[in-house]
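Retro notes, structure queue

What went well: the backlog is down to a handful. What didn't: a couple of records were mislabeled last round, so from now on we paste the full input next to the output in the thread. Example, using AraC family transcriptional regulator from Puniceicoccus vermicola:
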Amino acid sequence: MNHIKNQEDHAAHTHNFLEIAFLLGGSTRHRTIRGENLCRAGKVIVVPPGAWHAYSECDQLEIVNCLLSPRMLARELAWLRNEPGFSFLFETPENGLAQEVRIFDLHGGGLERVKEGLGRLEEAYVGGSSSVSVTGWVLLVLEILRDSAKTPDEKGKELARRHPAVSRGLQLLATRMGEDWSLDQLAEELNLNPSYLVRLFQKEIGHSPMKLLAAVRAEEAANLLLGTDARVGEIGERVGWSDPKRFAENFRRHFGMKASEYRKRMLGVFEE
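Corresponding output:
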């Protein structure tokens, strides 16, 4: 946890934790691989592990960052998976693979309640209180967030209804993204007819498996372009596009520009 009362512009920010950023005052332009949003006090930004994000044009920005480790989510907070309104802590977005930054608005006096809860959490954290005490205040802050921001729980219901083959397919593509997948190979892994597999993905995800994989690879490449100094060709290989031409075509199709141009444009604002 950290409390910054005059946050400066900050780029190339990735981490291995789930970050929940509470904007308590001022304003900023919050940037992700998909663009930017003007954010003011009362916004809450939820950043999953590995997702690039940045702040620019900060104006008297006061922010509290709560960093929840994978271990904490898997142990102390694991039971929240089954609680209404907390699925945003564990979910992936609509396509089931890419890590999406989400922004919530606090309503009905929620900002003041969050400030009070964060103040108690900060006292416990900085004061060296027991892990039980700190976890208790974390839960209180999360409850305030759920109630004030009206965090949706549709995702948890959707995941519960998802076809097992689709869930397994998403897992395979996520954990073995760098492999040279084909539709036939994925269908064989899942013991399904390729045409039937496409219909399942279209129905539940909205895209065919290969179109989905291309989008996820492009977004992972974008995270690497902004969060690392790796060469463009190296990034293509890491996400499963070892052929530079194929990488260039797919990245341009998704983001509308070359990978090198994307990196320059997105990071250029922090070099001025």
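Agreed that this is the format going forward. Reviewer comment attached to the example: The first helix runs from residue 70 to 74.
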